[in-house]
Every structure is written in structure tokens, then in C-alpha cells.
Amino acid sequence: MTVYGIPNCNTVKKALDWLKENQITYEFHDFKKKGITAEKLNEWSARFGWETVLNRKGLTWKKLSKEEQAAIQTQEAAVNYLINNTSAIKRPIIEKNDQAILIGFDDDNYAKTLA
């Protein structure tokens, strides 16, 4: 299992703590250090919808001008933006057997999906 995220993100910390408490082993992929591919972003967009993968609640998105935000209206535009602005990817994203299964953190969803 792979957890994609940023180590100093509070939501990622909650998810990692949950995994540790439930003794679930994982590999961590740090977006900041390792980056992310367009292929991976497109896979996640196909699974969750690009609107979900793009974190519009975060500071990275909010720093954009209204014009810049308005220009991101398609999956292609979102993927191009996220490759260069990995902090705007909703996180964490968890993959099991190379398939994305969870995005974000919700105690109940984790329990149902992983326990």
C-alpha cells in the first residue's frame, strides 16, 4: 500500500496515525520530494473525479487569482496545474495494489476499506 501526500499536512498526519494504530504497513510517497506524474493524476481523476483530486479548500488554490482559478475547468487543465503545484492535490491518496482506493481522511471510510 502506498500513501501519497505531504508529511507536514495535518490530514496526512491523521491518516498515518490511523494506519499505525491499526498496524497497517505502507510506503509513503512525498509529493514535494518525489513529484507526481500526469499519468497518476489522470488515474486518480478517473477514479475520484478531477474536481475531487484538485483541493479547492487549500491555501495553494486560494492564492490563485479568480482568473487563474476560472481557467482550470477541465481535467487536462487541472492535471497540468497539479503537476507543478502538488500542494493543491487533495491528500492523502491511498493506493492498494496500484489502485487508488481512498482520498482524504475519514475514520469510518478507513475502517470500512482498510480494516
From TrEMBL:
Query: Which SUPFAM superfamilies does the record associate with it?
Result: Thioredoxin-like (SSF52833)
InterPro entries tied to this protein: Arsenate_reductase-like, Thioredoxin-like_sf, Tscrpt_reg_Spx/MgsR
Q: Which Pfam families match?
A: ArsC
Hey, which family's this protein in?
A: Belongs to the ArsC family.
PANTHER family assigned to the protein according to its UniProt record, in alphabetical order: ARSENATE REDUCTASE, PROTEIN YFFB
Protein name per Swiss-Prot or TrEMBL:
Transcriptional regulator, Spx/MgsR family
> Which organism was this protein described from?
Pedobacter rhizosphaerae
